[in-house]
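hey all, quick one before standup. I had two proteins in the batch that finished overnight and I want to keep them in one place so we stop losing track of which output belongs to which input. First protein below, input sequence then C-alpha cells straight from the run.
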Amino acid sequence: MSSDLLANLGLYPGNSALVLLACLFLLWLISLKIKDASIIDIFWGMGFVIVALVCFYMVPGKTGYQKLLMALPVIWGLRLSLYLARRNLGHGQDPRYTAMQKRAEKQGLSEARWRQRAFFSIFLGQGLLILLVSAPVWVGMAQSYYAGHNSVAIITTIGPLALLGTCVWLIGFLFEAIGDWQLKRFLKKNKDYDGPYEDKPVLSSGLWKYTRHPNYFGDALMWWGIFLVACQAPMGWMSVFGPILMTYLLVKVSGKALLERKLKKRPAYQDYIERTSGFLPRRPKKKPG
C-alpha cells in the first residue's frame, strides 16, 4: 500500500473525528445545562450522519456509488435519532446514567466532577465507537477516488456487491423500523398497566415472534450491508471491524445483554426466552406438551 494511499485513508477519519469532537463538546455543554447525560443516546445516530456527510463532502467526484455510500448511513442515522428523540425527550435522564452518577457520588465525586468525567467516558467514548463502526463509510469513500503518481481511479457505477449490500441494508432497515413501530404500538396499548412488574405483558407477535430484538438485528444487518457496499472499493474489506464491532455492542454490551438483565427476571419473559431466538430470526420453538 503506497504512502499516498495511507495518507488518504487517514484524512477521512481524521477530519470526521475533528467535526465529531466539536459536536460532542457542544452536546456535553448542553447536557451540563439540562443535567441529562443521556442525550448522548439521541446523538448516536446523528454521529454516523456527521461522519457520512463529512466524508462525502471531502471526496471528489460525487458519483452514484459515493452518493449511495453516503445515503445509507444518513437515512439510518436520521431515523434512529428522530425515533429516540420522540421517545426520550422530556422524560429526564435515563436511569442507566443516573445509576452511573450515583455510583460515582458514592466514590466521593461531586455532581460537577461526575459531569466532567462523563465527557471523557461517555461522550468521547461513544464518539470513538461511532468513528470505528463507520469504517466502511470512510474506507469506501477514501478508496472510491484515488489519485496516485501515475493514475487516477474513481468508482462511478454501482456494481453487484454494492447492490447486494443495499438489499441487505434494506432488509435490516425494515427489521429495525417495523420492530420499533410494533414496540411503540405495544407500549401504547399497555401504558395503563398497573399490576406487578413480574406480570407485565411481553411483546411476542409480529417480528418479535421470530427474534427478541428485531430492531437490534436490523441495526447490525444494515451495517453489514454498508460494509458490502464498501467492499466494491479497493481494500474495502479492511473495514470489516466496523460491522463486527456494531454486532458485538448490540449483542454483548449495550443492546441485548443490557436490556435483558432485568427483563429475564420476569417469568413471562423467561418463557419468551425459551421460545424465541435472542438475535438471529428463526421460527419460535414449540412448547412441550
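OK second protein, same deal, sequence then C-alpha cells:
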Amino acid sequence: MPSSTPSRPVRLRGIGFRTSVAVNLVVFLAVAGFIAFDAVRETREHVVERTAALDEEAMTIHRAVVRPAAELGEVQQFIDGVCLRMSDTTSPGHHIVVESGGRVYQSRPHRRESDEIVSAIRAAASDSERQATLGDVGIVTGVHAEDGVIVYVAEQLDDIRREVRGRVVTRSVGVLVFGVLLAVSVHLLVHRLVSRPLRRLVRTIEAIRAGKLGAQTGPFRTDELDRLAGAVNDMSRALANDADRRRLALEQARRVQENLLPRSGEVAPGVRLAATHRPAEAVAGDYYDVLALPDGTVVCCVADVVGHGVPAAMVAAILKVLILDAVEVDADPGAVVRRVNARFAAVAPPECFASLLVTRWCPVRQTLWHASAGHEPGFLLTDAPTALLLPATGTLLGVMPDGTWDTEAAPAPPGSVLVGLSDGVTEAMDAGGNLFGRDRVGEAVRSVGRASPEEIVGAVDRAVLRHLGGSQPADDYTLMAVRFGRDPSEHETQE
C-alpha cells in the first residue's frame, strides 16, 4: 500500500528572519522611545532656559524703568520699544507688563493688552514652573520685583516649542539614520551567524531525506551549531552504514530467493520451463516451482503472498517448504492446498494471506489436475482452438484453517503448455491508471499459439512492458510457462 507523508500547509518564516524582525523591532522601539524622550527633555530644558532668559530680561527692564529720571510716559514708551524689537517671526507671543505705583503698563505693539493676559501672567509668576494658560494658549513668565516695581515678561509656550522643534527634528534624523544602520548591521550579523549556517544544515538534512545518506555539513563558528552539525553528521554516517548493511542483506536475500526458484530450461525429462520474475523490491512475495515426482508426474505451483518486500519473501520461503512437504504426502492438487493451508494458518501471522495455484500433469493419462486457492487464473494451451482458464477452486490460504479445495481435471496431451502468473501481471497499470487485465494476457498468448515456453513468456512480457510505457510494475511480477512433453507435430517435423 503506498505510504503518504503529510504536506507542509504553509511556508513558515525562518529563524533568521524572525530573529532579525525581533531585534529590529526592539531597535525601532528604542529609537522611537529615545526620540520621544529627547524631544520632551529638549523642550523642558529649553523652557527652563527661556524662563531664565525672561527673568534676566525682566531684571534689565526693571533697571531701566526705576531710574530716578524716568517718567510714567517713558515707561510705556520703553516697554513698547522693547516689544517692537521682538518681531512677529522670532517671538510673536512676547508681552511685557510693569506694575508701578498702583498702575499697570502693558506693551502695546502686538495689540494683545488686556486684563485677562495680566491675570494669566500674574498666575504664571506665582507658579513653581512659571507657567499658566490663557484660554487654550500656554505662557511662561519671567519676573523681577524690587523697590515697589514688578516687571513681567511673558512668552507663549508654543513659540518656545517651535524654536526647539527644528533641533529635535535634526537630531531625530540622525538617530533614525543610526537606527537604520544598526538594524542593517544586526540583520547582516544574524544572517551570517544564524541564517546561513542553518540553511546549510537544512540543505544537508533535506539531502539525507532525499536518499543522499552520508552527506556531511559544517564546521560552524558557533558552539551550538557546530555541535548540532556534528550530531547531524554522525546520524548521516550511521544511516549510510545501516543502508549499506541493509543493501548487503537484501542482496544476500535476493540471491537466496533466486536459488529457491527453478531455472528456466529443461527441468525434467520432456518438461521445459521459461519464467520471468521481477520483485517490486529487492525480494518478492511471489514463488513458483516445478517438481518432477518419482511416479513420472509433474507438479507445478505459483504462489503470491499478500504484500511485497522482505516479510512477503519470508512467507514465500515458508510456502516452498510446506509445498514440498505436502507433495510427499499426497500429490493431488486439492490435498496439497489443504495441507499447505493447515500448516500455513498455524505459522503465518493472522493478517497474512496468500494465493496458490497447484497443478499436476500425468503423461500416462495425459491429464492436468489443478486446485487454486484464490489465485490468478492460469491458462492451459492444448490442441483445442482456445486456451482453457484454470479458475480458483477455493478461498485464499490463511482465511479458514480447515478449508477445502476441489481438484479439477482437464485433458493435456504431450506438448500442452501451462501458463501461470501472479496478479502483478494482470494488475500492471499504465500512466492513465488502466490495468493490463486477463484479456490482454489471453490475447498475447493467442498471438503466438502453441509456441515454445520462451516465446509465450516473451510475448506476454513484451505486451505488459508496452502497456506500462517504461514504468516499473508496482507489485511483484511473476510469469511462467511450462511445456509438458513434446508436441507430436514437432516429431513429425523433425522426421
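Flagging for whoever picks this up: The mean pLDDT is 84. The first strand starts at residue 95 and ends at 100.
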